[in-house]
Amino acid sequence: MLELRPNCECCDKNLPPAATDALICTFCADCVEHVLKGVCPNCGGNFSARPIRPAAKLEKYPASTRRVLKAEGCGPRKAA
Question: What pTM was computed for the model?
Answer without folding.
Answer: 0.85
